[in-house]
Task: inverse folding
């Protein structure tokens, strides 16, 4: 495996601490990005809705355990430069809490202003160009230090606090993040952000979360490719192998030889059904995308905002 090169500016920790969001344009080489996409593509043919393969949920396609298929992406999110940045932000050792792949597979209506619950840092690695037409997230700098309890709406969501939309003028003060493949976006889970409606599907991200080691109980129980795990340094393994991950349904039944995944028992007929359903779904998306582009051009919308 080729060594991943990343040069993160010295003052990045200070900027991230102050603003709650940091953009590192074109940090990864085109070669690294193409390798990651190639590794994902081979695994992406597993189209069943389970946590081992890929999931199609609403407007998104996910690979929930990216370390199973992409050794290159694993080495990126566990790169010394990113870990040092997270350590500096938390003031303690950072651990890997989640690690997945996301692809937007259809146009999406706007996601209103919100804050993600938790003390972590979210990492987006752009695998293709991201702009306003494909879904560019907007942030209010410095809002990660505000008291969310005074601003959030009364209804509850599992991992999100939605806030009153009248409190923030995103059009005037929001920072919209666009960029080419290889751009890395890092932001606090606590920062206020939104996602305007977009018309073109296809945005692809590596999506990871770091937590301070003191909050390691928030971490997901991740699956790793054995070769990828063996190739990690001792320091990297200490970021993924530790006590304190979230308790819940795991893949291996302790004290038993069987695995929870055995319970799926996916028949050949069901596999064919899944593949056929997915094919119809993708054709429908292409038709929807075509007419959305036609309407978009007719409205004469112009311009992409880029940092």
Result:
């Amino acid at each position: 495996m080729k060594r991943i090169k990343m040069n993160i500016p010295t003052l990045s920790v200070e900027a991230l601490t102050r603003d709650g969001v940091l953009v590192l344009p074109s940090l990864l080489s085109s070669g690294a990005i193409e390798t990651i996409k190639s590794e994902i593509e081979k695994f992406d043919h597993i189209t069943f809705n389970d946590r081992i393969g890929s999931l199609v949920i609403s407007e998104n396609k996910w690979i929930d355990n990216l370390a199973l298929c992409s050794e290159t992406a694993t080495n990126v999110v566990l790169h010394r430069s990113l870990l040092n940045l997270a350590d500096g932000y938390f003031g303690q050792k950072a651990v890997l809490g989640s690690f997945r792949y996301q692809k937007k597979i259809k146009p999406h209506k706007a996601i209103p202003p919100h804050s993600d619950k938790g003390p972590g840092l979210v990492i987006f690695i752009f695998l293709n160009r991201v702009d306003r037409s494909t879904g560019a997230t907007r942030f209010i700098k410095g809002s990660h230090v505000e008291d969310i309890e005074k601003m959030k709406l009364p209804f509850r969501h599992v991992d999100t606090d939605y806030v009153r939309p009248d409190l923030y003028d995103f059009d005037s003060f929001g920072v919209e993040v666009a960029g080419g493949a290889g751009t890395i976006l890092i932001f606090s889970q606590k920062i206020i952000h939104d996602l305007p409606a977009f018309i073109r599907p296809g945005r692809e991200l590596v999506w990871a979360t770091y937590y301070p080691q003191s909050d390691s109980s928030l971490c997901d129980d991740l699956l790793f490719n054995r070769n990828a795990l063996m190739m990690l340094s001792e320091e990297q393994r200490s970021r993924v192998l530790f006590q304190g991950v979230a308790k819940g349904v795991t893949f291996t039944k302790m004290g038993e030889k069987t695995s929870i995944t055995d319970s799926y028992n996916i028949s050949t007929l069901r596999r064919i059904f899944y593949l056929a359903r997915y094919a119809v779904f993708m054709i429908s998306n292409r038709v929807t995308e075509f007419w959305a582009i036609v309407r978009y051009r007719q409205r004469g919308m112009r311009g992409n905002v880029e940092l």
Remarks:
- Confidence is low (pLDDT under 50) at residues 249-264, 302-307.
- The chain has one domain: 12-248+265-299.
- The helical segments are 12-19, 30-43, 71-77, 80-90, 170-173, 226-231, 234-237, 268-299.
